[in-house]
Protein 1
Amino acid sequence: MALIAVIDDDPDILEASTLILEANGYEVITANNPTTGFEIIKEKTPDLIILDVMMDEPDDGFFLAQKLKKEESKIPILMYTSISKTIGMQFGANELVPVDDFVEKPISSEELIQKVKNLLN
Amino acid sequence: MDNHYPKILIIDDERGLRLGTERLLTRKGYSVATAENGKNGITKGLEQDFDLVLIDLKMPDIDGLEVLREIKTSKPSTVCFIATAYASYDTAIEATRLGAFNYILKPFTPEELIHQIEKGYRQRKLLLEAETLRQEREKNLLEIAHEKSRLNTIIESISSGVLLINKDGKVVYFNRACLNKLHFEKLDIEDYILDKLPSEISELVQKLFSDGSTQKSYTTEVEVLEDGELIIEATCSPVPHPDGSFAGVVVVLKNITGLKKIEQLKSQFVSMVAHELKTPLAAVLGYLDILVDKSIEIPQEKRIEYLSRSDIRLKGSLELVNDLLDISRMEMNTKQREIADVVLVDIVNQALELQELEIRKKNIIVEKSIPIDLPSLHIDRDEAIKIINNLVSNAVKYNKEDGKIIINASSDNNNIKITIEDTGIGLNEKDLEKLFHQFFRAKNKYTRAISGTGLGLSIVKRLVEANHGKINVESVFSEGTKFTIHFPFK
């Protein structure tokens, strides 16, 4: 059974994501800030990380992703954010943002599960 | 002869000659004046503008040559003759050197005199014409010089940089502002500039060179100094020759660093708003997804909890939209401030009433001390209500169970001072600095469960300042926060 770490500062989103993922047969660990997030990743070595961009600081998610990349972590990262592309801030999976997939909030449960399945395969 | 009588002055000490000449010339249509000695001759000759002057060389008081010199010095275009019975080569030369037109030998016949005088008058007219032309030319030159210096002054004074480049890519003209816009130490006329200009600008200049059109202009933005320290807008326009052919390019440079900074702040604000609006929607949609998904089993009390969490998040969004509208109204300045006498204790009581339910739930004690004789505030009533409501609701929201809210007011000669203090979660020093910033919310173990837009205090600060007041905050983390407002006494 795959273990997924969800790192987001919004308690409701943590709760809802956990339920959806658990209902689909995944094990879930959560953290509501990048520091605890990093700790649980080190401790539990999950199979996938779902990471929010904006937490205490607007780019906490990016920093955590970069930190993991530097440590040559092989764990796939699904990054999600509520910042829209239409306002001129375009993010994507590239060198600067070393993530494996990128989605915009809100995301439907089917879509989330689909993305998770893709990344775990 | 001309239609105006040529004016002639005869200076001679011989009375007979004076009268005879006068009679002769008057008959011929001249307007004649006479002087019987050198002294009078000079006086008259300088007083009026004579066309011609006939000067006797030998006079008892002043020598004819001296008279000639005096008159020619101040009236250079008056034509003068020297008349003498004792002509010598030397005096002739001296007379000519001093500006005499001719030398008339005495005695002379009427015909000889008239002939000389007519010749002299033609010369006089030429001299006058030349003088008029000279004056006109001088005036034009002065005007051109003046116009040029005025244009220079104008171009030097404008804050935009102006740079004129000829077809060979050389600098033809530039003003001082041009140097600081391009961050150049110096620039010289005739310098080849195309390889010195930022590439964005020289590309446009070269495009205009190859177009050869005198119609199109191009504009570009250039980051002259890194990190957005200096950003300019350059507009390159062709300059035509008078015949319409292509002469060169004028580049006008404007500093748009400030505008760019504002633009950046604006887009930051927009992205913050987008984030703040989308996050609660994402949370609610997440809950709804679970609630409608029949494959997920959820106990009844959890269902109710998710619904009530959704309710709280949506209300939070609504609050945010209202705060945003408040900010937008303040920024557009559409609000007409209606200054009224506002009784503080009334609006404090109203604010407490609104919070009554929450106050009871948390079992908070409110201590209020507002003197009965406190002067009324002289500010906009709606805004005063908004300020007090916001601070009171914060004092409740961020308070602890069984906490306290202390509201005090006092006045001195200059100010009315209002303090609203709570025994709540408080703020650490780092967060305290950012407290009045838009979208700032302290994040710690206490605030996680409290909803807020991050806009309330930034609105309060603006409203207080719009009403000429001042707001300060003191706080001790996990012990409480105290807001102090000073409004000037009217």
Protein 2
Amino acid sequence: MAELPPPGAVTDRAREAAGGGDPPNVLVVPEGGPDPSGVERAGDAYQGADAGTLGRLAAAAAACEATGARLHYPEAEATASGPWLVVEPLGGLLSTVHAGRGEATVGCALPPPADRPAATGERLRALCAGAAPAHDHYPVDDERGLFRTGMTTFALAGVDVGDRLTVRFDVATTPATTAAGVAERFEDRRWVESVRYEQRVGVERATPSDRLRAAAETAAVGTVGDWEYDWFPEPTAFSRLPGGEKLALGTGSPGAERFDGGQFERCRALLERTVAGWRER
Amino acid sequence: MRTVAEPVVGTEVRVEPADEPGVRVNGVLATPANVAKADVRVDLAAGRERSFVVEHPLGALGLCGVTAAEVTGVRETWSFARPEHRFCYSCGLEPANVVGHPAGLPNPALVEAIHEAGVVERGPPARRTVSEPVTHETGDASLTLRPRERGAGAHLDLRFRGERLTAEVDPAGGTERSLVERVVGSTTPFLADGAVEGLTHAVADVVSDVLVVGGLTDVVVEASLDEAYHRVTVGAVRAAHERGLLE
């Protein structure tokens, strides 16, 4: 197994590899690159806040050097021709759909000042309980979010208390998310005066060609033993890239602070095989 | 072969009579060669056509003794909490490509509908066993298929999460009705914490994979199952087919 490069060398190597090469285009997200100063190499793994992004960037740089694919770093040149392979923490899954983002603002009446502290806490707890994910059949609290990924979910984003209580939620959206559906989550309480929903980023659904799909699916079978599609749970640079000829792939988990040599190897192999497969077809 | 007497509808699927042996799901014949995925669920595929969680309708059909049928997904709306629906949406497939039960049951509504409609015999019944024991192992799971006297049916001896269950399944539909009702009322172990409920559900999955997909009728199935046990159920019948051990 290849040794992970020193953390400090990864961004330099990516910068050197970027700009040249031929399609397909390869982009590691988040754009702008990881901060290698906060990552240590311990044994066969990177550890630190940006360990995963750094490891995937190292894998992408190695794959692009080996195949001559075009690495975009630190940012995407969105007008580049050819398909896009976007490298994300997908645990070996493939993705053509990224969830959207919105914001819900709930305005609540409050009683006279003497009763406000208790009422504020009670109403805030009730709103958060109403916003919590729930499903009749599926457990929604697993770490990976196997079921939650496809649900409209809410995260508390802010609370303002004055003459009225205003609570803001960041909303992870799906193609089924509607303003009316968001309002229904809150408006059945008598003290809720208003619910406003604004979409910030829509769900992105790419439509890659059979050629690109088949290359990635075959690469996944050879690398992780199977191919499976799932959604990425939030918008990324993938969502902004123009056109439908794009596909996300990669190893590691969102937010993980460890990325080991096996994940590096699989990510590199997944990319190299996808590039090779796409060019052969 | 045995098929439904008239079209019936269960949860997520419509089942119509067939003139030829075998069960097709959205047009794809249920055979080991057409299994595209077998771990926590079973998918059938041919080209870009793919059906997800087929073990639920296939288990129901097998428990009712149906050996020939056309199964069609009927769902028209998305349920994105289900990973299989997200897979379909990602690939340009439709909700009807997911034929598994939304609550993880082996389609009790389908079993009830078949019992009401009845099953008809068309042509002589085909009986198949294995000519020698076949074992398939993956990780902590293993499954052995052993020959059984022609006409004896399937004997299941299953272990899962420390529990053991034995069952007699009549591939001609004569399985004890109370057992069938218990099995199709049990939630998949993927969604149920209880060992007994998961093990009871596994009976339908083994019937789906060994009897319907594998085409065996008279066989002893001894299995120690893990959390992704379709790897061994499908793995064993695939090995039996590839080695030419069906007779």
